[in-house]
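Our consortium's second objective concerns turning raw sequence data into structural hypotheses that experimental partners can test. To show how far this objective has progressed, the report includes one record in full. It was chosen at random from the queue rather than selected for favorable results. The single chain below, 734 residues long, was entered without modification.
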Amino acid sequence: MAAPRSPLSRLLTVLLAGVLAGLVLAVAALPGNLLLGLTARSALGSYAALPASLKTPATPQRSYLYANDGKTLITTFYDVNRTDVPLSEVAPVMRQAIVAAEDRRFYDHGGADLRGLARAVVANVKGGGTEQGGSTLTMQYVRNVLKTDPTRTAEERAAATDPTVGRKIQEIRYASALDKSLGKDEILDRYLNIAYFGSGAYGIAAASQRYFGKPPAKLTLAESALLAGLVQSPDAYSPISGDKDEALVRRSYVLDSMVATNAITAAQAAQAKAEPLALHPTAQPNGCTAVSQGHDDWGYFCDYLRQWWLTQPAFGATVAEREQALRSGGYTVVTSLDPKIQATAQQQATKVYSYDNKRALPIAAVQPGTGRVLAMAVNRHYSLADNPAGQANYPNTVNPLISGGASVDGYQAGSTFKLFTMLAALESGRTLSTGFDAPAKLPTRYAAEGPGSCDGHWCPANANPDWMDGYRMMWDGFGRSVNTYFVWLAEQVGQDKVVQMAQRLGITFRADSDATFAKNNAANWGSFTLGVAATTPLDLANAYATVAAEGTYCTPVPVVSVTGADGTKVPVGQPSCKRVLDADVARAATDAARCPVGQQSAFGQCNGGTATGVNDILDGRPVAGKTGSSEENSTETFVGFTPQVAVAGIAANPDDPADSVGSAVQTKVIDAVARVIATAVKGQPEKAFAAPSHELAGDPHRPVERPTVPNRRQDPTTDDDPRSALQRWLDRRG
């Protein structure tokens, strides 16, 4: 690739002229074969002595992210916009055009065309016209590899274009060695994949897409000639960002050169010259803020994948190396994102709240048994664009509202945390038929002051006493979401066991106050079962997916496969799963979780639920789940699952927890999550939940001695935090 010459370049020409003076005088007299023989005898180098990058070029390439179908492009990552393609996927006229434009004697010389170089030296010394470079395609390839090799230092890359005689002679030596060791087509293949064509496009594949929106195999004669003409001065001649008239002049030059090399006829050249410049510029997306048009909601999944990528040692020893690998490694990443599920989730999230609403409904969908994340949606645009005055994070934000992290601790999920209490109780040997006379209010041993206290102790109440109070077992306690039943049950099991259960199922305490309480005082976290700890839809969906998978926890993962630029599969992204619950315990919890959604347990003990409309939306298909309302309805949550998918949605104001979303939105959240589940299971075989053993079910018909309420004042010095969940949320944010 030639470029306008500097004074140093002219000095190089003069110096090189002196070095080659004898050769210049002999050029006219020496036969071609004898000249080439002289080249070989001049010890111009051997293949073994070549830098490793010239043998196996480590050129930076764009990485592609696809949805789980392997076809739907999400976005690309790159520092340099290029992708290698084999020569067989480049139109023959393109191959002929680049040879005619840059190196007509490509198939005749030995890598360094001393005859052409001598001719250029003579012309440049005489002056009076356009300077000639004399560089062959092979020499240009050497220069391009050495100046872009990511394994070399910045100084070494800069030296590849130094205007010195020594550098030029080394370039000749390397080119000669390559020519003796590689076939001409291999050299041409490598050159076409590294040459710069302007407008940010490196390599023929990127150039073909950038200028004409098509793969290089479909380039026409006129298009090929235009692209071939760009490499001499890509920025100046680019018809997108440079001089269109100059680009057409160069196109004509290339077409005439193709006639001179007998690649085409004069008539074909004339016809191609007459064609108008028909560009179809296509800009490749770069990064998560440049996802496919109309799908900026995919950005949240993309960002989650990028964060996952940066934790994987397979892509480098440090975060910086892994970031560079994503942007220059040429990976093909088939993600776990399901476009249909994602579309439904986004539609439902924006149906509940518009993009311009300060409140949000983040939704996550996870596949039980693999941990693969199928969808991540929220009524926000993943964008760095400015928001209207007074609107901090809507409609545009790149904060991880669905997965958590950075400044996002999560949201209270209310009674969905009762699942962890039930699991801890079942694991301790209690049965689903464990009974308790649940009062409207339950005095506890935890010291507290204020409206929610009874004689100086925390006193949780049922939201709907007429429907919730009375003798309850796990089935109807869970189905009707009876607070006093589950607070009592958590006390029987031990609050620390409940907290540990949540952590085993993947609940992460991102808020410092939650993490500290869980570490130092979990045994006194009385309100934990009511969902006062902050969590995210992704953590919650995956926790319930663990129950759906009969006790097998899988680390959330956003990919199906990752393939390197050389076609080798990278050993990452496989499900990482382990058993964290006895299968029978998980089945028992699932049996009780049939009650909230309007279905019946295997033992016929469901007698009411808080989300009975789910059964109708799923048309009777086996499903389970749980609603959750935090204190003063600051958030509303629903998690639902089948054996094939688990979905969670939490309505909240991410910027202001004091802005209660209200109870009226609960039915909308339930409906939204249920419809995402319906899309996820559509077309899949219906799977039933396995019934738990009779040992874990117990005997609901046998009279049970009902436990009495223990002395709630046995520990008046407890250091449990008596503040409301909302107040604690506000306090930890100052």
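The partners drew two points from this record. The CA atoms of residues 433 and 702 lie 9 Å apart. Confidence is low (pLDDT under 50) at residues 1-44, 128-132, 703-734. Both points have been shared with the crystallography group to help prioritize constructs.
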